[in-house]
């Protein structure tokens, strides 16, 4: 019996670690088109199903919606197969099916104990932040330090001309600063409302030094909400934290200016930025069929190149990306689900973090959306008054 308990504890540690590390592990190659992070989660699913003898629950609604989008993507691929080919559509639909399975099994409030899971993601966020500090310091001395494991392949690196740290933007263990920010922001929000102020300040400093526009803007908004809504926080603590945040921001202005941060968040910058409103112009090139069904996920670049003779990236914020990929039909269904998540969570601050990321970065349907949905569901039943914002 003791051996059985010991084995189960080891497996539980493995599950928590893989879930918490998934956004980092998923950048590495696994088997065929399945990355390492996804592969480990699939193994965990199989082990738990066997251990529980088939007695498990799933997130049915999320599974059905993502599977619908996978089928819709196949239909779109069949329509365009003579011009765009079908292999890309088939591979992307297979990826959607895998994401549907992972989300169905893991994206629920009962998958882990939230207090234990918080400790895991906090430790990883802090380690990633300290490594980012080291990257930042060494770069100031003319030394570039990468945060990737040298003995595991990373096929996704081919999408990057240069890794951001090579030109002064530390990215820690992630592919880019925005991905680091996506991981740290929910932990930062939780640490604030758990009154773990030292952790909060460390994470805030790391977010600013990362120069991620998403990270900096979202962190400022979360901090303002915290100061304004934190009724149980002594006034002196609010002022001290606000002062520390102001000092950190003022000290970082030269770095922020060098990264064109203010230009990015200006009206013109937001209008031209493909992460915000820059892709709105793509819709004028779509006919009625594409407007209804979309051009297929991750097919925007190829579609625009062949039909419009425009060189664009497979990139947009997640809201516009969903409509470009799945049309009005799929976009409305998916975004209706996203809107309904507001009522799911008592922790409105985490939903606000999710929405700010959703409208400023492309997270469909990759490791980041799995991680953020996981956070939303795990902490959906918090009773901490400081985490709640009135509807």
CA radius of gyration: 21 Å
The chain-level structural class is mainly alpha
> In percent terms, what proportion of residues is strand?
under 5%
Q: How many β-strand stretches? A: 0
Say what oligomer this is: single chain
- Counting structural domains, the number is 2
Question: What is the tally of helical segments?
Answer: 16
Q: pLDDT below 50 for ≥5 consecutive residues: which ranges?
A: none
Q: Helicity level, as a percent range?
A: 55-70%
- End-to-end separation in angstroms reads 49 Å
State the shape.
globular
- Average pLDDT over all residues: 86
Structure description:
The chain is mostly helical. It folds into two domains: 56 residues; 277 residues, no CATH class. Helix 2 packs across helix 4, helix 6 packs antiparallel against helix 7 and helix 8 runs antiparallel to helix 15.
Give a topology summary.
Blueprint: H1 2-25, H2 36-51, H3 60-84, H4 87-106, H5 114-140, H6 177-193, H7 197-209, H8 213-229, H9 235-258, H10 261-264, H11 267-272, H12 288-293, H13 300-307, H14 318-344, H15 348-358, H16 367-378
Q: What key phrases describe this protein's structure?
A:
mainly alpha, 391 residues
Short account of what is shown:
It contains 16 helices and no strands.
